[in-house]
Amino acid sequence: MNAAQPVSLTATVSFRLGTIGTLTTNRFTERIETFGLKLKDVGLLHLLQDGGPASQLEVARLLGVAPSLVVAMADRLEVLGAVRRLRDPGDRRRQQLVLTEQGHELLGRCTTAAQELDAELTAELDEPTRQALNAVLGTLAASLGLPH
Amino acid sequence: MNAAQPVSLTATVSFRLGTIGTLTTNRFTERIETFGLKLKDVGLLHLLQDGGPASQLEVARLLGVAPSLVVAMADRLEVLGAVRRLRDPGDRRRQQLVLTEQGHELLGRCTTAAQELDAELTAELDEPTRQALNAVLGTLAASLGLPH
DNA sequence: TATTGTTATACTCTATAACTATA
DNA sequence: TATAGTTATAGAGTATAACAATA
Predict the structure, then answer these.
(1) How far, in Å, is the CA of B138 from the C1' of nucleotide D10?
(2) How many domains does chain A divide into?
(3) Is residue A143 in some structural domain?
(4) What is the pLDDT of residue B5?
(5) Closest by alpha carbon to B57, among B7, B105, B104, B94?
(6) Which residues, 6+ apart, have CB-to-CB distance to B113 below 8 Å?
(7) pLDDT tens digits, one per residue of B57-88
(8) What is the CATH number of the domain that holds B87?
(9) Is residue A146 part of a domain?
(10) A11 vs B: CB within 8 A
(11) Is the CB of residue B63 inside 7 Å of nucleic acid strand D?
């Protein structure tokens, strides 16, 4: 007993989540390039929609990225007209990032792109299976501290 | 009709696969660093186990990476004693990469690491749910042309 | 001349560190 | 002196292009 039967690496949940996740990320990245967006820009847009205005440092902490990267993302999104920087009058060191109407629309297009990608990725699954998969992934995301 | 109800980006399968996949990849990468391996080295080891000896250019094509990257991986794995380069006597341009006994053991340790990570990631799921998840991921991987 | 592997170089993404303005 | 944001610099990972050996 205790003899581990030989399990293939590719049969593990981790390997499959990693490879499918990478493929998914690559395809999504291609699509949003069309909008002039980088992958993490989408996370920033989503954050602003959900949590309202936030200072750049708050954003960096919430996204788990360096503050200098938030500068680059905010620059890019400002050029696209998707966000505006508003100086906090009470503390003029702070930049409040706010989503513009255009930013909201852009986020909507990203969501549509994700839904289209969903259909493409799960084309082989029947609807109950697809929904069950999404539910389990939601549980997993929640338990791992990811947005869900 | 046809009015799309507002779906959150984070509720899509694509977003969840992307974020969970990235987290999984990061954690797996940390673990195999202990063995002196980079992420894609593991894919190479697995390939050699499954398909037997292969030329470096075949490996590049199968892994979907540049030939120059295979050189770097083979260098690293050769130093670790995990693979050997054998000149093809029939065509001396070709280097046949073969897995050594040590390479086989190393791959085994990677598989164990993935299984441990599986347990960690799916700790919140009951066993039938965990198995159902793995089965659907296997279906997905197969339909997307990924190893499974 | 074409192909395999290698080396040299460049590009993308992101972090760390130095710096400026404000508190 | 401490903090928010910015700019400068560096490192990891990987691709493309130039090159050498062999066919």
Answers:
(1) 40
(2) 1
(3) no
(4) 52
(5) B94
(6) B28, B31, B32
(7) 999 999 999 999 999 999 999 999 999 999 99
(8) 1.10.10.10
(9) no
(10) yes
(11) no
